[in-house]
Amino acid sequence: MVQWLNVAGVRSAWTLLRRPSLLAPFLTVPDIRAIPFDRLRRAGIQYVVFDKDNCLTAPYVDAIHPAFERAWRQCRAAFPGDRILIVSNSAGTPDDTDHQAAAAVERALGVPVLRHKEKKPRCGGEILARLGAARPGEIAVVGDRLATDVALANMNGMVAIWTRQIV
């Protein structure tokens, strides 16, 4: 699948230049193995939104990165049912013909992929509508990019978790 220009990202650049604090994560971890999922749940986080590539999987691979399998099971135990959502700037976007990539990711990872018109960091409203959270602060966004994943969380009042090491 070919990704086209992220117009939402370009439009957000001016906002991020004026407000660089939007690039500051709440929590920085090496990768998902260091995320305290049970502690997040006890602290009031009800939903976790993940970027896929470089965070859960290698780029353009649908299976969970083998080293992350245990952490993925822990996350799914702490956030069962539809409390986990994948939000990608490839799978589930208009670039994803007939949402074939989104369906493949859902089969491989066992959680839903958001079908969204606006790419990150501008799809916060679509995430909120899909999850039905009582308030944005109940949602943690986990991703490897400051200008998309962390900015998405901070622009929408969600909790930003930045994974430094990429797959």
Automatic annotation (TrEMBL):
<dbReference type="Pfam" id="PF09419">
    <property type="entry name" value="PGP_phosphatase"/>
</dbReference>
<dbReference type="InterPro" id="IPR010021">
    <property type="entry name" value="PGPP1/Gep4"/>
</dbReference>
<dbReference type="InterPro" id="IPR036412">
    <property type="entry name" value="HAD-like_sf"/>
</dbReference>
<dbReference type="InterPro" id="IPR027706">
    <property type="entry name" value="PGP_Pase"/>
</dbReference>
<dbReference type="GO" id="GO:0008962">
    <property type="term" value="F:phosphatidylglycerophosphatase activity"/>
</dbReference>
<protein>
    <recommendedName>
        <fullName>HAD-superfamily phosphatase</fullName>
    </recommendedName>
</protein>
<dbReference type="InterPro" id="IPR023214">
    <property type="entry name" value="HAD_sf"/>
</dbReference>
